[in-house]
Design brief:
The structure holds two protein chains of two kinds. Chain A is mainly α. Chain A starts with a helix and ends in a 5-residue tail after the last helix. By secondary structure, chain B is mainly α. In chain B, 70% of the residues lie in helices and 0% in strands. In chain B, helix 1 packs antiparallel against helix 6, helix 3 runs antiparallel to helix 6 and helix 4 packs across helix 6. The two termini of chain B are 31 Å apart. Classes of the chains: A mainly alpha, B mainly alpha.
Chain lengths: 57, 136
Amino acid sequence: MQSHILLLAAFAFFVSVVFAVLSKDDPKDQLRFGGLLFAGFLATAIVLGWLMFPFPL
Amino acid sequence: MATVRARAAERPQSAWIVLLCVAAWAIPGAGHLWQGRRLKGVVLLITLSIMFILGLAIEGRIFPLGPSTSWDILASLMGFSELGIGVLYFIARTLGAGEGRVLAVTYEYGNAFMIAAGLLNLLVVIDAYDIALGRK
C-alpha cells in the first residue's frame, strides 16, 4: 500500500469516523457528519495539492 | 458536617472516574463500552486500533519518550502522542515493531497514522470523562 491518495483517503476516513462518533449520537447524524468531514478532507487535500503545484519544493 | 459527608460520598465516584479514564486510555473505546455505549465503543476500538496498526505496517516509527542518541523535543512530543493509544503502544514496543524506515515512501504517513491515533484516543478519553460526569 504505497499510493499517496489511498493512504490520504484512509487517514481521512479514520479521522472522520472518530470525529463523527464522538460529536453526534444519532447514527443518521453520524453518517451525515462523517461523510461531510471525509469529503471536506479529500477536497481540501486535492485543492491544496493543486495550489502548491507551482511552488518549487 | 454536611460537606464532610458529601466529600465522603464523592470519593468512590472520583476513584471510579479515574479508573474509567485509565481504562479508556489503555484500551480505545473501553470507557464507552463500560458506560453502556456499546456501538460507539466498538467503532472506536476497531477504528483506532486499525489506524495504529496500519501506521506500524507502513513503516511508521515509535518515537522515544525521552533522551536518546538523536533526541529532540519534537521527537519526544511525537512519542508522547503515540503513547496516547495505550496498551497497543507497549505491545508494539515489546514486539520490537515501529523501527521506522526513513527511506520508505510511506514513512511519514505511518508516523501520521500512529500519532493521530494516539491523539484521537486522548479525545476519546475526554469524551468518556464527560459522559461519566453526565455532561453528555
